[in-house]
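Follow-up to my earlier ticket, as requested here are the two runs.
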Amino acid sequence: MLDIEAEALRALGASLGDELVRALDTLGAVRGRVVVTGMGKSGHVARKIAATLASTGSLAFFVHPAEASHGDLGMIARGDAVIALSNSGETVELSDIVAYTRRFAIPLIAITGRAGSSLAQAADIVLLLPKQSEACPLGLAPTTSTTMMLALGDALAVALFERRGFSVADFRLFHPGGRLGNALLKVADLMHGGDAMPVVSTGVVMAEAILVMTEKRLGCVGVVGNPDGRLLGIITDGDLRRHLLAPALLGQRAGDVMTRAPKVVHPNSLAVEALRVMNENAITTLFVVEDERPVGLLHVHDCLRFGMA
């Protein structure tokens, strides 16, 4: 079965040409919404295509063709475009949507397996599925045909995504929840900034530096130059343990105890990238810097709270 569907996808890829470019030009020029519709199994695929378009920057939604005949045609307006899915091209329930698009000059893109079907003849653009056997042993259940429809919908969404220059920031905007949303979190979304950031100047004595570390409870303190505020080093719990036997530790200056040139990260970096840096260097904190000056601190626990590992 998988071989049959894989071969169908290869045939689909080889068959696409100018009509696909026309479809992309049409969808890219839409000022309204992209309405995707279909009945039965094609309807389920249409819902997924609409969801993928919407999540990648296209204003898109699904309209059930039967509901369209009972008032939901009002959801489709001039300036929209319609993508209609039907392998046979003769789905009766689509007739009212098709007629509506013709009446109001709304672009209609058909995804169908029959070039001579009613849907294909009515459409402005036809994305024709190549003739391939259904993977069902009886050759009846929609399997291969719906796989090709789904892949074609993904291709349209990704191509539009690339045309628009859709960025990681845009993707994050539409995917704020779940593991995918967490993977797109930026360091600035998680870092401890402002008064929560533990920093002292190089001339501060260690007794005061330790008080700041204890108060902020992040396991370290950054050491900055005075008066330029550049991050020069870091003092961690490990540094304190290494200097425990040093004479008069509490009276030493922070600049003498600090580890110089600590690992840092930019606030616009992805949090997962920062976590990778921490894991690779066996550290638990990263100072967040802009123009060499600290603007925040990221702790490994901040990442773990959001399911990053």
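Run two:
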Amino acid sequence: MAATTRRIIALLPFTWVWWILGALLPVIAIPRTPAPPTACDAFPRGEIRVGVDASHAPFAAYVNDTLVGIDIDLANALAAQIGLPVRFVPLGYDGLYDALYADQIDVLIAAVPRDPARTNRVLYTPSYFEAGIALVTSRSSTVSQMSDVSGRRLAYEFGSSAHSEVDIWARRILPFTRMPYQYAAYALDAVRLGQADAALVDTITLHQYLDAHPEWDAHTPRIILSIPYVIALRIDRPSQAVMVTAALEELRSSGALDTLIARWL
């Protein structure tokens, strides 16, 4: 009996060890979900450095030494959603991506389209503006797609991206009358005044033209060439891309993005 008691006493320290391990095991075995990064985690400088092209109105330009435009308003709105101040870094067009690679900026908002050749170094958000080439007609027109242009008069800006699209479609569909103009606005004049049946123009010019001619009941049945403007971020900082994309989608769903763009176009 005494020997049994001595064996039990000898095993008691090991029993406490097993009790402790049993209590800790669930904590050790069940992985904890990491907390999502905060704004300060994603942008440790405490601000969002935004690269802009100040020579590309109405997206960004200096007016009385102040940066204004769609990209400026968009950056301010995104920063407000994220909860950090914004600092603008004006850049030349050729140095936009170099500034991002060199960590001179966190975010590039400079009316840039998605570039597939850069996706090994850059993350892109969904589009915030469609800057493509649109087919424009009067509301009463029966032209609804490019094949309908066959046998009709098509206006466009000479030497523009729209001109390149006209050359492509001239090889795809039956012949049509080509009406080149010095400016895209002149091509829209031709449609509005009944001198042409349709026009191919960039959507930026189209927005500005319709704002100047609210009486014209124009119709844009189709985007012929899509050129979506996107926001670019570094691929090695995905938390920044997640936050900026979420903020952009919130602006879109609330209608604030459309309101922002309508202020300038």
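The only thing I checked on run two: The longest helix spans residues 2-29. Let me know what else you need.
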